[in-house]
């Protein structure tokens, strides 16, 4: 899923890391949601127009995207930046949890680490008073495409000793190679047992990329064109195409669609 979200975009590795980390964290949080609960994450760099978004629901429907302003600078100015330089010293994380029944929880924190992943551990400690640890492992091929992504989110249950989170962190750090090891799906199921002795898998479910965009949702964008442009397209039987920058899907408007719009 992370490959699908990150690889289709013409973005460099730093942006893939940033998007992949943000979407992975939203995906892991989706495992804590129930019923029709949803979570939306916004990571804003010091340059507030440079943003990364991710949404997830309890069914494992996930999407993620980068703001146009950040996408547009990617080719020339982001190439040599690390993720910390991209975020800068005054980045911030905003999380909106729609808990259903008109109950919405919002949290906002700064980003002392500037690498997104550790900043989310900080977010949960500050905003939800929960000791948490995240680890996202992405492996790239020679063409700078993501070939593997594995994530872990650890949170302590109430009453658990706080040093337990450090023990988990250390175990994952020491066994980093297991998480980055390419392997078949069968070995994926064994990974938790390779990392921890005394564990039990209580639930498994798939996650999938889901944008939810539709041609209808893009009709309002035709308002940004002048009437002359629309009439010209209709009279010359030209169709127009609008590309969703979340999923890359092309929505085509025929001259007949445009005629209806003009009328
Ligand atoms: Zn879309």
UniProtKB/TrEMBL annotation:
Residue spans crossing the bilayer: none
Stretch forming the signal peptide: none
Keyword Ion transport assigned: no
Pfam families in UniProt: HSP33
Keywords: Chaperone, Cytoplasm, Disulfide bond, Redox-active center, Zinc
PANTHER family assigned to the protein according to its UniProt record, in alphabetical order: 33 KDA CHAPERONIN
Protein name in UniProt: Molecular chaperone Hsp33
Organism encoding this protein: Clostridium punense
């Amino acid at each position: 899923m992370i490959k699908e979200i990150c690889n289709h975009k013409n973005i460099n590795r730093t942006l893939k890391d940033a998007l992949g980390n943000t979407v992975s964290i939203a995906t892991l949080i989706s495992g804590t949601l129930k019923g029709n609960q949803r979570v939306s994450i916004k990571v804003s760099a010091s340059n507030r127009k440079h943003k990364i978004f991710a949404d997830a629901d309890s069914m494992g429907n996930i999407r993620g995207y980068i703001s146009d302003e950040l996408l547009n600078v990617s080719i020339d100015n982001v190439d040599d930046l690390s993720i910390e330089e991209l975020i800068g010293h005054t980045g911030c994380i905003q999380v909106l949890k729609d808990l259903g029944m008109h109950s919405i929880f919002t949290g906002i924190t700064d980003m002392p680490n500037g690498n997104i992943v550790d900043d989310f551990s900080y977010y949960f400690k500050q905003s939800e008073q929960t000791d948490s640890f995240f680890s996202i492992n992405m492996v790239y091929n020679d063409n700078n495409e993501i070939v593997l992504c594995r994530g872990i989110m650890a949170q302590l249950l109430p009453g658990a000793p706080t040093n337990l989170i450090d023990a988990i962190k250390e175990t994952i750090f020491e066994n980093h190679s297991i998480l980055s090891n390419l392997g078949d799906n069968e070995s994926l199921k064994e990974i938790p047992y390779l990392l921890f002795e005394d564990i039990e898998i209580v639930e498994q479910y798939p996650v999938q990329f889901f944008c939810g965009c539709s041609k209808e949702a893009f009709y309002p964008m035709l308002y940004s064109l002048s009437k002359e442009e629309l009439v010209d397209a209709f009279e010359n039987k030209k169709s127009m195409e609008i590309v969703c920058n979340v999923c890359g899907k092309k929505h085509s408007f025929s001259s007949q669609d445009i005629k209806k719009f003009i009328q």
